[in-house]
Design a protein that fits this description.
alpha/beta; Aspartate Aminotransferase, domain 2; 7-stranded mixed β-sheet; binds ligand TLP
Length: 342
């Protein structure tokens, strides 16, 4: 029996599965700063293997994972290229400027994808007046574009431009397994177009804490040192890495259920008269309830009344499906919501 978790605010709200709790309890431990926590080492090995990279590194969060990778690729004063609504640029507290003393050059994307010609235009020429461009960041799935899965072809196009100019490529793959499942491709096919990839274990994959970053041995060695600098050198971290192993090895296939549930939710909401503003490819549904005359408060109250959590502002919000929400739950939510709207 899946423990119900009727919370649409994000997929970060997921709770660990009973198997994860058990694995945490039984995990073999060591001191990870000394490199001898066997469970962390195993998670890092598995992450590298699944993504086709040389090495992995367990970090506390997606934000830390992106930070250590961006730092590993760059030098103080460099400029980096990011999609203008990317999580690293918008939602990571300006860490790239604070920690890396980096300039951000943003490029508007088409459904989260930066066209290669726009990336190329954003790369600085070698000129005494200009900062050096050193890195291109991509995001897959792209959260604020609507949970959009960037295809291998799209990723390759940006990779080719970056490599033509000797730039690094970092992928914020917080939800890269959602992308792989939605596209029906192996995660390796997506990760091969990035030198480093940050993967969240604590979103749709349901682990309680953490992310892994993967890349070449050299880049991960640098990232490890930055992790220590940021205070992310954890000790008996096997306790939290053990659920991460289950996340990566057993929780990927079920992401399809989340995607199917998001589609069901999207279709049902539209029948009720609520506008869905994104293309629903994965586990996110962005809605606008102004067509039914509701404001954030009406939505929030309705959800609370039905026993669900959702947090809107203005006339819309993002709804995420995840472990703990099943098809039947979505059906009854839609039915009950329909009654409140009429
Ligand atoms: N995203 C969270 C919020 O921060 C918006 C969410 O609810 O979606 N990259 C991407 C693409 C993300 O969506 C997130 C978290 C992160 C990185 C950061 O991960 P954490 O929260 O583990 O630092």
């Amino acid at each position: 029996m899946v423990e119900k978790n009727l919370d649409l605010r994000s997929d970060t709200v997921t709770w660990p599965t009973p198997e994860m709790r058990e694995a945490a309890y039984k995990a073999k431990l060591g001191d990870d700063v000394f490199g001898d926590d066997p469970t962390v080492n195993e998670l890092e090995r598995i992450a590298a293997e699944i993504t086709g990279k040389e090495a992995g590194l367990f970090v506390t969060s997606g934000t830390m994972g992106n930070a250590v990778c961006v730092l590993a690729h760059t030098l103080r004063g460099d400029e980096i290229i990011l999609e203008h609504r990317s999580h690293i640029y918008v939602n990571e507290v300006g860490g790239l400027a604070v920690m890396g003393q980096l300039m951000a050059r943003t490029v508007p994307g088409e459904l989260g994808w930066m066209r290669p010609e726009d990336v190329e235009k954003a790369i600085r020429a070698d000129n005494i007046h200009y900062p050096r461009t050193s890195l291109v960041c991509v995001e897959n799935t792209h959260n604020s574009a609507g949970g959009i899965a960037l295809t291998p072809k799209q990723l390759q196009a940006d990779w080719d431009v970056a490599k033509k100019h000797n730039l690094g490529v970092h992928m914020d793959g917080a939800r890269v397994f959602n992308a792989a499942v939605a596209l029906g491709v192996d995660a390796k096919e997506l990760c091969k177009y990035a030198d480093t990839v940050q993967i969240c274990l604590s979103k749709g994959l349901s682990a309680p804490v953490g992310s892994v970053v993967v890349g070449s041995t050299d880049l991960i060695k640098k990232a490890r040192k930055y992790r220590k600098m940021l205070g992310g050198g954890m000790r008996q971290a096997g306790i939290i890495a053990a659920p991460g192993i289950i996340a990566m090895t057993k929780m990927v296939d079920r992401l399809k259920d989340d995607h199917d549930n998001a589609k069901l939710l999207s279709e049902g909401l539209q029948k009720i008269g609520i506008k869905v503003v994104n293309q629903v490819q994965t586990n996110m549904v962005y809605i606008d309830f102004s067509p039914i005359g509701w404001k954030a408060d009406d939505w929030n109250k309705a959800c609370r009344k039905l026993g669900w959590r959702s947090q809107a502002s203005g006339t819309g919000t993002r709804l995420c499906t995840h472990y703990g929400i099943e098809r039947e739950d979505i059906k009854s939510f839609l039915e009950e919501l329909g009654k409140l709207v009429k």
